[in-house]
Amino acid sequence: MGRSYVAIGDSLTVGVGARLFGGGFVERYAAMLEKRLHMPIELSVFAKSGLTTDAMLLLFKRTDVRCAIEQADIITITGCGNDLVQAVQHEKEGVDEKELLLASMHCQANFTEMITEIARIKRGQKQHYAIYILNLYNPFPNIPIAERWLQQYNHHLRILAAKPHVEIVDVYRVFKGHEKEYLSIDQFHPNHKGYEAMASALFQRSSE
Q1: Which of the residues are catalytic?
Q2: Domain boundaries, the chain
Q3: How far is residue 16 from each of residues 13, 23, 50, 134, 154, measured CA to CA in Å?
Q4: Count of C-beta atoms within a 10 Å radius of residue 58
Q5: Torsion angle defined by CA atoms of residues 136, 140, 142 and 146, in that order, rounded to the nearest 10 degrees
């Protein structure tokens, strides 16, 4: 009997920026789990590049997604990076910093709704399950406003860890000071080293 792992998210869950063979953090983490547990991991990925948290929330209406969540022992979620990019782009055009705060609050509200929806799907189940939300690293370390927003966002994201079954994986701390080493040629998505670091941080968090 194996374990079931569902990965939901944006381009980070897709693995954009990784080498063709090896995959992103999702495949690497699944491989780490298989090695540790000595059993197969059934992996289901529901992700697409460019998804905002609004679009991710719509995934939960799909029957295939709900069925996969119902069976899942482990669920990972990445998101809000695209919400951040939109807000930063607006900021460069002279929009008030409130734009960033609103984006942050909107992401957190959507994450809360996702967690609530997972709880609804799993209501009545006795099997243990865990939800791991990966926080955001800073692909714009030279934009002070982005750094400030990210720290604030990641700080508030920790509140979600108070909910049952939810853990936060601190990707921000792992990437801090290693941006050149961990980012791909597009200077936004992780490269294979970055995804390996993300998978290791997730594996360590899920092993505690």
Answers
A1: 11, 186, 189
A2: 3-207
A3: 8, 9, 11, 16, 22
A4: 11
A5: -60
Q: Does domain 3-207 have CATH number 3.40.50.1110?
A: yes
Helix (H, G, I), strand (E, B) or coil at 167: strand
DSSP string for residues in 6-75: EEEESHHHHTTTS-TTT-SHHHHHHHHHHHHHTS-EEEEEEE-TT--HHHHHHHTTSHHHHHHHHH-SEE
Distance between CA atoms of residues 21 and 159, nearest Å:
36
Rounded CA-CA distance 44/19 in Å is: 20
Q: Give 54 or 2, the one with higher predicted confidence.
A: 54
Query: Is residue 50 within 8 Å of 78, Cβ to Cβ?
Result: no
The tens digit of pLDDT for each residue in 84-111 reads: 777 766 655 554 577 778 888 899 999 9
Q: What share of the chain is helix, strand, coil (3-state, %, to 5)?
A: 55, 15, 30
Q: Say how many C-beta atoms besides its own lie within 10 A of residue 19's C-beta.
A: 12
Kind and range of the H or E run holding 133: strand 130-134
Which residues, other chains included, contact 83 with Cβ-Cβ below 8 Å and sequence gap of 6+? 52, 53, 103, 106, 107
Provide the pLDDT confidence category of residue 197 given band limits of 50, 70 and 90: very high
All residues at 6 or more sequence positions from 22 whose CB lies less than 8 Å from its CB, including other chains: 28, 192, 195
pTM of the model: 0.94
Pairing of strands 41-47, 166-169: unpaired
DSSP bridge pairs for 135 = none
